[in-house]
Design brief:
Structural class: mainly alpha
Shape: globular
Number of strands: 0
Largest sheet: none
Order of helices and strands: HHHHHH
Length: 153
């Protein structure tokens, strides 16, 4: 693994861990704190380093996801600034899902035990894993929005 790839991976993992803390934090009373800032900053850095550290060879699903992720993060920042809690929760959960989605894809490509289950990367086990994770994030977001415990202002 090259140095730029390692930096990108570390940034991504920090963003993912911080994002999980933030998403689960939506379920209890509180306000955004340092972990929220860490999540947003490192998730934005993940997208940016994905664009500048790796060569472009035409449009790819990764590039499309990076663009969509940056749009979602812009919405999250706007919702945060305007104290729109529901919009922020939805955008933040979606941004975190995108990070975890890529983590799942990369895990099936790079971790030998998982790679054996899905050597091409498009086997049903990959899609099922992504769907289960998506369902989990949707449930967390719905619960957080209904509880109205997390506030931005």
């Amino acid at each position: 693994m090259g140095a730029l790839t390692l930096i990108h991976v570390i940034i991504s993992l920090i963003g993912i861990v911080a994002g999980l803390v933030v998403v689960f934090g939506f379920l209890k009373p509180g306000k955004p704190g340092l972990m929220n800032t860490t999540f947003l900053a490192f998730t934005i850095l993940t997208d940016i380093t994905g664009f500048i550290f790796f060569p472009f060879h035409g449009n790819t699903p990764a590039i499309d996801l990076g663009i969509i992720s940056l749009i979602v993060l812009a919405i999250a920042l706007l919702a945060l600034k305007r104290k729109m809690t529901t919009a922020y929760i939805i955008a933040a959960v979606l941004a975190e899902f995108f990070n975890v989605f890529v983590l799942i894809v990369q895990s099936f490509q790079k971790i030998s035990v998982l790679h054996q289950l899905a050597p091409k990367g498009n086997e049903p086990v990959v899609g099922i894993t992504q769907l289960v994770v998506l369902a989990g994030f949707i449930v967390l977001a719905v619960i957080a929005i209904r509880k109205k415990a997390y506030v931005l202002g």
